[in-house]
What does this fold into?
Amino acid sequence: MFLNVDDTSHIYLSLNRLYMSLLMVAPMALIMLLVMRSMYPNKGQNGGIVASSLIVLIMPW
It folds into this structure.
């Protein structure tokens, strides 16, 4: 999104962009854990990722 920015003063951060990024990353993390289950053997860490992704997805409702 900031590929063609000429000056750093033209970059502005917003809560809307953060919110949309989190809503994009949460389902992607769940899908990756489901599809590539054998690549992520740590069940405790996987549970944390699933829980945090579900919280991020449910929190806006």
